[in-house]
Specification:
Elements (H helix, E strand, L loop, with lengths): L4 H5 L19 H18 L7 E2 L10 E2 L7 H15 L2 H20 L7 H16 L2 H16 L1 E2 L4 E2 L16 E3 L6 H11 L3 H16 L10 E4 L6 E5 L11 H18 L2 H17 L21 H17 L6 H19 L28 H15 L7
Antiparallel strand pairs: 1-2, 3-4, 5-6, 6-7
Helix pairs in contact: 2-13, 3-4, 3-5, 3-13, 4-5, 4-6, 5-6, 5-7, 7-8, 7-9, 9-10, 9-11, 10-11, 11-12, 11-13, 12-13
């Protein structure tokens, strides 16, 4: 493979961690433990409504309606919340709900509703987490079946996993050969699959995609495109576009956080320092543009009147920055700054962005799923998941599901 991670990094400016993150923030650990208990209490209240159904992807007036495990990419975040609640409390009711939901993930594999790169999100927080926590062999098999389907979406010539659509449909010209920044968080399923089977094919596909993403999706200033298309026959780059950001050249903040966390996890699985360095460059860009309270606008380049925040991006960042701090060498003094930034972000979410006291069945307010379609100022189920993951990271020793 000619494109080494280090070679890819030379094109990306280093940036700096803003000085404001040099000192530990004034965040009350007891308040974080209370926030964790509040979140788990809310999950417990929701267990009857969403036993083997799913909230989301986003709420309506802060209330999620139940959905089936069909279409979409978000069902596993509820299962992940149940697994986290089970791990923290040891209460069987959370495990029973997660296991009931897992049956729907097994059925989904059989139903063929699997034409998406989001198999990583879907089967990591359900089946991989379930296997890690219970050792149940059926969950490992389901996760491996999902990993095989994800590998099928890999295009050799450009070296990328196609994000959306039926990858065999030649007439689907928008989707064919299109990668998206979010896929960085779907790669852990493949790294895990190689680890558990000893077959390096999965990890090799994941690493190739991570490098292609670094080459085309990451821009020279450390920001990211949302999507980038390549010719699947020749591998030639075609260009960047957006689906959920403001425009093709803008900086969609949630995409940036998917990449920060995704490269930090790639560093952990591969022991390749370059991925941690790339995650740091992406983090520097993010932290230089985030609002004073550490919750970003949904797109850093959206016009002033579109000033909606995305708490879900902040929750992903809180986890990704914490993981990044763990992946940097001990001698790298930036690690403390990333840890401080993660904690300050989490403290801000817990103090100012929760649904406590509101008529809601979600956890975080001010998520922005698809603002240009009117979907903002709502709970987003992945934002809720990453919020609780960040709280668990900050208050406990935690072995990640990713
Ligand atoms: N992965 C889809 C999104 O972040 O909205």
């Amino acid at each position: 493979m000619s494109r080494t991670p280090d070679a890819l990094l030379t094109a990306v400016g280093e940036g700096e961690v803003p000085a404001r993150f040099a000192e530990p923030p004034d965040v009350d650990r007891a308040a974080l433990r209370r926030a964790r208990s509040d979140a788990i209490a809310r999950i417990g209240e929701n267990l009857d409504t969403f036993h083997d159904e799913f909230p989301g992807p986003s709420s309506d007036d802060l209330v999620y309606a139940p959905t089936d495990n069909r279409d979409g990419w978000t069902t596993s975040f509820w299962t992940g919340l149940c697994w986290l609640a089970y791990e923290v409390t040891g209460e069987a009711r959370f495990r029973e709900a997660a296991e009931a939901q897992l049956e729907t993930f097994e059925r989904r594999l059989e139903s063929g509703d699997v034409e998406t790169h989001d198999l990583g999100f879907l089967y990591t927080l359900s089946a991989v987490a379930g296997h890690r926590l219970t050792g149940t062999e059926r969950y490992r098999s389901a996760a491996l079946a999902a990993a095989d389907l994800l590998v099928d979406r890999f295009w050799e010539a450009p070296g990328l996993i196609q994000a959306w659509g039926d990858h065999e449909a030649e007439e689907d010209t928008w989707n064919r050969g299109r990668m998206i920044v979010d896929t960085m968080m779907n790669l852990p399923l493949l790294f895990w699959a190689s680890e558990t089977t000893g077959d390096s094919t999965y990890a090799s596909v994941a690493e190739t995609h991570a490098r292609t993403n670094a080459e085309h999706v990451v821009r020279a200033d450390g920001s990211t495109f949302h999507t980038f298309k390549c010719d699947v026959e020749t591998g030639a780059p075609i260009g960047g576009e957006t689906a959920q950001g403001y425009d093709a050249d803008s900086r969609w903040s949630r995409g940036q956080t998917w990449a920060i966390y995704g490269y930090a996890l790639a560093a952990d699985y591969t022991n390749e320092r370059a991925y941690a360095r790339l995650s740091a460059r992406l983090a520097n860009h993010y932290l230089s543009n985030v609002e004073a309270d550490c919750v970003p606008r949904w797109d850093f380049d959206a016009p002033a009147e579109q000033d909606w925040r995305d708490s879900s991006a902040a929750a992903i960042a809180a986890c990704g920055l914490d993981e990044l701090a763990r992946q940097l060498p001990l001698a790298d003094r930036r690690a403390a700054s990333y840890r401080n930034a993660a904690l300050e972000t989490l403290g801000s979410l817990a103090e100012h962005y929760t649904t406590e006291g509101l008529d809601s069945n979600g956890l975080l307010t001010e998520g922005a799923y698809d603002p240009t379609d009117g979907d903002y100022d709502e709970c987003c189920i992945w934002g809720d998941y990453f919020y609780l993951e960040a709280l668990v990271r900050a208050t406990d020793q935690w072995d990640r599901y990713w």
